[in-house]
Amino acid sequence: MTDTDLMPSGANPEQTPLDPLRGPEVRRLLLVGGRSTMPIMMKEIASDAVIDQAYEWLCKQRRRYAHNNDVWDVRLRWDELRPQLQADLLAGAYRFSPVQRYQSRGESLEVWSAMDALVLKAMQIVLSDRLDLPKSCTHLKGHGGAKAAVRHVVENLKDRPFVFRSDVKQYYASINHEILMDPLRDKIQDKIVLNLIWQYLGHTAYQDGIYRQIKRGICLGCALSPIMGAVYLESLDRRMEKSGLFYVRFMDDWVVLAKTRWHLRRAIHVIRQALDALKVDIHPDKTFVGRVSRGFTFLGYKIASEGIVDIAPQTREKFLVRLSSLIRLYEQGACELGIGDVLKRFYQWSYSGLTQVPGARLQIPTAIHAFYGSPRTPLLSQVRLG
Description:
By secondary structure, the protein is α+β, with helices and mostly antiparallel strands. It is built from 16 helices and 14 strands.
């Protein structure tokens, strides 16, 4: 994400230039001729059913957080905080707090306050049902998920020998806020909800005592981000629907299948035009253009003309690195059952949702079987993978 320094630690970052609707303006929006005109979408977000659902999600997601995390204060005082939160949302008075940023494995992770995370989840619950987004975008609720995307690709390989598989380079970090808001304004008439989305996009993040205002990109690990990511690439989805070619997308990963090279070149041209308008780039290291028979990777699997033929090499390597670290812990006396759980989860992930896919020949890595059957790990031989 792109950001600019705002202020040193101790300053008040509550109000930002990206907050387009302040108190008096919000009140004018809610009053017409002295009558209250309650925003319909915000009324749904602030409803008892949605707020309670978001609260249950928060409690589950942060059940292992540190004892001094603010989630425990929210849980302790929930009966008191709940009505005030609903009133602030309906009045357009709710403001997101600064977000704490961490660096982990080369990526910037941001942790919202417990109450902010709850509000963002409530917005996600309502927006996921209210926004009409293409079915080709499979990561959204009700669109099938990653395994559905893989199944659709395999089921449509026949008579489509050419493939274009790629994704967006630094997708979340590259999202332009103004470009994202244009389709959102068309889809959402509730100005209070739009204001909250604008706050979410241009939030303040702090790390090591420095506050920064986010100018570009959306944050990882936020409940609302997958929907925003789907909306940002909607124009690409719509253009590909009109092309008549097979197209499926999960987050920023997509696959196009074509009957001829000419159709494939046309699809590549359309996608490049769409991405140029959105000011994002195709990832050069994750792009494959050519015949399906050569094999390509998609969402953790290797796919060829006959269907799924193996786990993707990158997925295999990441798993084996994790497995190797667990083996080292085992050799130092760590519990064997933890390794068995990891093996079982990987095995289940490999096959789940794909048992009926044509041509599936998934291979569990040899190293797993070697360790699984090792005489020095007798407990692991009792773990059933399937």
